[in-house]
Amino acid sequence: MTAQARPSTDPTVMMPYDVRTATTVQVVILAAGLGSRLGRSLPKPLTPLHDGRTILHRQLDCLHGAFGPGLDVTLVVGHKAGQLMLAARDANFVHNPDYRRTNTSKSLLCALRASRPGGVLWLNGDVVFDPRLLDIVVPSVRADRSFVCVDTSTVAEEEVKYTIDAEGFIHELSKTVQGGLGEAIGINYVASADKQLLIEHLTRCSDNDYFERGIETAIAEADLQVLPLDISAYPAVEVDFEDDLVRANSVCP
Question: Structure pTM?
Fold first, then answer.
């Protein structure tokens, strides 16, 4: 079931589309989760930051600053959906009805199925990042190339890590990767030509899988080519715990 703040194009109606010349960039923010580890009463994207904005409003400000008015934002909602819908009235909304028992693979699947033709930039609803990071992201979105943003300055055991193949594309992508070259930070893009393949692999994911599992199986089984986009020059923090929030407030201008 989909609730929308404004009408969106029927994704089943196919039409010529070229992201390189399109004026509208599709962005999905995954915001359906319970966010219980942070221990706040609000949905995690509505957590206030030191500058007075919430995580969500900071994300939206950064995205609009990078892509301009040609931006089509969809939030995947579940937990306390009404609060998120009130906080982002200009967005579209896709509901993950199974948010209590599913992980980000199914939230992303809901969003991609509802999207228009063309590529999709998506991010976790709890990532706080330096807006200059998007200067690296925008050219690859405009070029319509699938990528995962990575930070090569840190390889923590509990984070999603990656390795690359001989051609420099991502080979492995999960929390269990051995010999990881860096961490995925939760900002990603699927190209228009790759979107249906990713949908198929997200469909096959288990309910508790992160969306990275769908990317990894598409790479392993269908030779999906995904670039690791190095944004290490600029900080990005996924806020899972109180310590993460403190760090996000201290390192992200």
Answer: 0.90
